[in-house]
Amino acid sequence: MPPIVSRRPFSLSALTLSLALALSPTLSLAEAPVAAPVAAPVVKYDYDQDIFHPVYAKNGMVAAEQELATRIGVEMLKRGGNAVDAAVAVGFALAVVLPNAGNLGGGGFMMLHDAKTGQDVALDFRETAPARASRDMYLDDKGNVAEGRSLYTHLAVGVPGTVAGMEHALKRWGTMKLADVIAPAIKLAEQGVVVSPTLAQMMDVEKDNLGRWDSTRSIFFKDGRPLKAGERLVQKDLARSLRLIARHGSKVFYQGEIGDKIVAEMAQHGGLIGKDDLKHYKVAERAPVSGEYRGYKVVSMPPPSSGGVHIIQILNMLERYPLSQYGLNSAQTIHYLAESMKLAYADRAEYLGDPGFVKVPVKGLTSKRYADELAQKIDPVKVLPAAAIKPGKPQPYESDQTTHYSIVDGKGNAVAVTYTLNLNFGSGIVARGTGILLNDEMDDFSAKPGVPNAYGLIGGEANAIQPGKRPLSSMSPTLVLKNGKPWLVTGSPGGARIITTTLQTIVNAVDFGMNAAEAASTPRVHHQWLPDELRVEKGLSPDTLQILKRQGYQVAEKPTMGRTQTIQVRDDGLYGYSDPRNPDGATAGF
Ligand code: DON
Questions:
Q1: Has the keyword ATP-binding been applied to this entry (predicted)?
Q2: Which site among 112, 131, 388, 554 is 20 to 30 Å from 166 CA-CA?
Q3: What does the alpha-carbon distance between residue 291 and residue 37 come to, in Å, rounded to a whole number?
Q4: Pocket residues for ligand 1 (CB within 6 Å)?
Q5: Dihedral in degrees, nearest 10, Cα atoms 412, 98, 509, 517
Q6: Distance CA 362, CA 122 (A)
Q7: CB atoms within 10 A of CB 225
Q8: Tell me: the pLDDT tens digits for 64-121?
Q9: Can you say whether the dihedral through the CA atoms of 205, 207, 213, 214 is positive or negative?
Q10: Pairing state of beta strands 534-536 and 555-557?
Q11: Residue 126: CA atoms inside 13 Å, Cβ hemisphere, count?
């Protein structure tokens, strides 16, 4: 860790500062004073001022990426279940209706606010590397990363955590029986669901990866091509697996019939997961990372996610700039967003990994003092080139899939879950006879220091492959609390962009007073240090982009980033919204 310097309160606004810098050639950047934190503007929701409006409900709400799953969650709440009961039901339902991301064969994270105890808990059911995994398993004879090996082969699969995670959450905080929360998912798998245009497109994009395996083709293909919109996706084997889990609990997955089939699948195709890997899989309850942002408390996922740490780290830097005065998506605001994102992602590559294996300096990274120090590197106008921060090799982005859902019940419990197979449909491999798609989460490790993964993220020693270790994640289920109670429940898929998407949702709500719908609907930006590119969604004004380009940013307008599912708790009830970037998402309540 670089040395920590003490905080120097200073009230010059950044604009005044840039002027001072321009006029005074003797005031070097290193001496540039750091502004003190700026308070949040007072938010007054005004119906007349908002273009997009959230869904309202009084007693409970679910925001998820597929309407059928949302409805199942709401049904659990209506039956008297709490947010965790609903979350587990939604988790199993998404494994059926959103097969590209919802899963039994992957892993994820849950952030929970327990209204009874007032505590926030982070549940980690991330995949782990099998015992036979080794540091260089994705390198070829020449020591180069073998293309696709960590993504589309049986070697890509980490030991799945979702089933254990769901069962753990239900036993620990839920009130309903496992069989009851799984029942709706079984029915959907058995009877089939109509393929939406969105899902059809996902399957089409991944047709080569899905088509490679008989076990996968027999479920998602018809007449030699992926199912089309309007056709029915029936998953009999998955229904059977779900029924087994409903009857016997997670034991059947980790030490019984389903586990045996996964192990057989691995053995047949050179995969590494063995009986003991499944038997020894463990869910971890962790203390969340937390920070203060303009008077709000932000609690989010700790390592092995990098998400919470960097959201807080970036917010700590942003806190000193009056973003609400600079304006939403103005060049000045985007500049501060991009510069602080870059500094955080550079630290990600260096320090972040599984805390069971490496010492992650969470306290240091999320401290206000460290943010002060970093903020001194941020010039109000000049762009810090990525190479000046740390060198690396950029790589293009790829398509990807994860999913997030948020739930709040009438008792004040709040749950945010992000879980994933990693890329779309994970490895594309269904373990024969189970109907269960297996993840390709092993790609989240750094296969070789300095070589980017599917998200262009690079990593080093801290995220090297080791048996039993969890690959570093960006998933960031997050709660923002006001006076100790959930105020915003949010999160997103999007690989490396999860962190910045979730960050901007918080900034939009806190700094720009946006409701959940507005916060989701506004264009996003992203910078991850390497590649040295400011990625933007469409919708920013040409003159803003021009200012940014003139400042020195490599601006790239690319496909949309993230798909948030957000619920905001206000005095008169719950206001939620499903990101319009996914037309299949739905927020509902009662
Ligand atoms: O854990 C992670 O950070 C990644 N495996 C998440 C992948 C992802 O978000 C793909 N999404 N759209």
A1: no
A2: 131
A3: 13
A4: 400-402, 420, 422, 441, 444, 473-475, 493-495, 498
A5: -100
A6: 15
A7: 13
A8: 999 999 999 999 999 999 999 999 999 999 999 999 999 999 999 999 999 999 999 9
A9: positive
A10: parallel
A11: 32
